Amino acid sequence: MVTQTGRAASVKDVAAAAGVSLGTVSNVLNRPDRVSAATRARVQAAMTDLGFVRNESARQLRAGTSRTLAYVMLDASNPFFTDVAQGIESAADAAELSLVLCNSGNGASREEAHLALLQQQRVQGVLVTPVDPESPLLEEVRRRGTPLVIVDRTRDDQSFCSVAVDDQLGGRLAVEHLLDRGHTRVAFIGGPLHLGQVRDRLEGARQAWADAGMPEDDLVVLATEALDVREGRSAGQRLAGLPSSPAPRPPSAPTTCSPSACSSRRSAPASGSPSSSPSWATTTSSSRPRPPYPSPPCGSPARSWAAPPPSWSSTRRPTPPTSTTRSCSPPSSWPAPPPWTEAPGLRDPSLSRRFSRRVVAALTVR
Length: 366
Description:
Elements: H1 11-18, H2 22-30, H3 37-50, H4 56-63, E1 68-73, H5 79-94, E2 98-103, H6 108-120, E3 125-128, H7 136-143, E4 148-151, E5 162-163, H8 167-180, E6 186-190, H9 196-211, E7 219-223, H10 229-240, H11 259-264, H12 349-364
Parallel strand pairs: 1-2, 1-3, 3-4, 4-5, 6-7
């Protein structure tokens, strides 16, 4: 309510309307337990009638502090940080404090501007997910008298109070879960790798992978430039284009013979006599050549195999075994190989989009 002079109702107006002193009104506002129930009710009724709203700025000026907390989040578009903000707000409500949210957007200059403004506003405390947890700016804020807590980061010197996730354990648990499900080829997506939590997750994933005795090359790392939707979509497209298994390599000391070699002779040349190289079949199901595969053992399921790469020298080509007991069916009776297809996602944009959404969810939901 506005008084007859056109200004907002003040503490003096409330005291006059309730018939009490200014100190009594102040006690009702700040220390209600010191005022009797009857007097407190009369003062509160006068506040309601006058539409009185306390001047928090004046109170802050006298007290030198506010009843406000602030959280400077790293990326407001990341659901993880909005969930953290909701938890902070719940705790602030329980303490009868208000919460101010600021977004640095992964920018050091914006973070510095937010921290400077919050100090000017005399907030009661600051929670921050810093762009650089080692920044001297954080120490400067605390030195000036503003309590500061680091969220989702830690400093190497452990000089700040911080609340963070054990990201190394998280990376280990994720890989162990995939191994338990029978997966033998896993991709790790995250970045940039200089971020502590990303680096710790990758370290935990590699430890679990090594402890399981898996080949190091089968843990594929796809680094991203940021933890956002655009980079997640890009990583999903790259992942969709990867083969589901590593390309097979030709054996260095083969013990099997090719189909045509087995069918054309019953015995191998004597030791020291010249021997012909095993023959290879060339598929024509696609304009793209099939990758080289080693020759199948005699009696194994029939398939066609691509010609060896030109880089193979004649000295590296496998020689037929000395056994004289193996034989194979004529190559003409073997069925044609399946057509060569592109890796999933390269020709099907909808598949890439669907896969990207899953990768983005895995990337952003922590």
